[in-house]
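Students often ask why we bother encoding 3D structure as a string. The short answer is that it lets us treat folding as translation between two languages. Here is a chain of 195 residues written in the first language.
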Amino acid sequence: MSEDENKRQYQFGEKLRAVRERKHLTLKAVAAHAKVSESLVSQIERNKVSPAIDTLLDIADALDISLEFLFEEYSRRRPVSVIHREDRRKINEEDVVYEELSDPFSGNGENSFESYTINIPVGSRTHRGSYGHLGKEMGLVVQGEGILHYGNKEIALKEGDSITFNAGSPHTLENTGSVELKAIWMVTPAQKFNA
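And here it is in the second language, the structure alphabet:
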């Protein structure tokens, strides 16, 4: 089924009727508040007609509910994105390896984010964040230890530590331990794999 067909089939009439009945309101009372006919409210509740947005807003106001409440199931029906292990994109930055965990294109652009693993050999460091960029980052060290160089600060991180920061300041992650440093990283808006 196509996304357009899903949109056309989404129905919320039963939800409107359930709220109206739970609040002990009659069709007549809702119609009077929304300044529409009783018949129209009945048809909307039975999914016989699709109301204009201003009519829907008036009915929602009469029932004291939000449009988010009416359309929350629609939001949940949006597609999910799966990246199988063998299909993950990788980026090598000298000897540092980034492996994609989420698809930055699955969002709506405005709220795009990406997540990936970072594998840093002993004595090495990341390079790309050394000038800073727009957005925020969050990281979790899952193996090893290192230092996040953030502006003029040095922040020690060990296995199990997490960190969140504004990405506008220059930042790099250095492996200062005796084993490969492995971390899971999230960035918003998407940067590295958004190409």
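Translate back mentally: The chain has two domains: 3-76, 89-188. Keep this in mind for the problem set.
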